[in-house]
Predict the structure.
Amino acid sequence: MLLYIDPGTGSMLFTLLIAAIGSLVYLLRGLKARMGILFSRKAKDGAGNETLPLVLFSDHKRYWNIFEPICDELEARGMDAVYYTESPDDPALEKPYRHIRREWIGEGNRAYARLNFLKARVVLSSTPGLDVYQWKRSRDVPFYVHIAHAPGDVTRYRMFGLDYYDAVLLSGEYQIHQIRELERLRGLPEKELRIVGLPYMDAMRSRLAAAGPVPAPETGKRTVLLAPSWGASGILSVYGGEILDALLATGNRIIVRPHPQSFTSEAALLQGLMARYPDSGRLTWNRDNDNFGVLREADILISDFSGVTFDFALIFDKPVIYADTSFDPAPYDCCWLEEPLWTFETLPRLGQQLTRENLSRVGELIEQCIHGPMYREARERARRETWAYIGEGAKRTVDYLEEKLGSVHET
């Protein structure tokens, strides 16, 4: 007699089979990554049994602005440290420090092999995902510290971004609540949390003061900077060429600065847009590693939920337009939390929202934001909430690192 399986049970068994196959594929991929790391063990720190006191790790040269003021402060105090980077052309490699050893450690598995078998007392990094993806905690590093690379919500990292750090350096009180709530929901031990401010914003603020005013353009037109985030919720993914057409129709000068990750994660999208809208006298594409020049030059910024929005508004004290891109929290830590994100509560106070309905009137929105006095008051409020200890970020960061070096011992 043939065994009968009703359709509902059959569907369930089929679903379980697919899930099992998916889990096996995921397991094999993870095993492959781990084997690659193990076979690359020869890339382990060449210092033998030496335990480094302090290591700073950056996964890309674009984050040198985060580490430079910290390295400068370490150098000024005569504190020895090692700076590891995954970028062979990281500007840090050319800077003449005496106390900061800088080294390119390769990319991908080669870099992870170096980090996963590292011997150090304290590691500072702006890279999320420690012990989640390929970068694993080394058994010879007792203490890992994360420093954010932008103001705003620390729950906008990809899932579990900060869970396995020992400490997180913050810039606002609301961020403490966000992390503590995630720890509670996930049953994690409490991390050390220290508000230190934003060293890179302090440095950019000082640089802006030294640079002086921007010369007025000869054409008398506005300079509009479009600087979106990357991913499915970013402006270019949602609006595509529509937003470029609308901006060009204003007659203003347009600078488009995609997020650097876009050139990797959504290369086809960018290649198509850059071919359709090539550099001209009216529109230029910007890929400078340092965004200071375009932020200083622009009269207004159009972005989405990118951290550059707050750099522009709070450092350069200029208005913004933020696009309605229907942010999907699913891949991010914030999807665990019920309260609204600080970013999306603050953006409406800083400028106008751009939607499909008012896209054709973007020129009017630009003028309203530039001339609206209420936005200046909102920028001041945002500074108070997310930029603690203005001008003291690097000092307070190194104070904390010095404190940890005095209390953390080798494993």
Remarks:
- The longest strand covers residues 52-58.
- Residues 1-16, 32-47 have pLDDT under 50 and may be disordered.
- DSSP finds 15 helices and 13 strands in the chain.
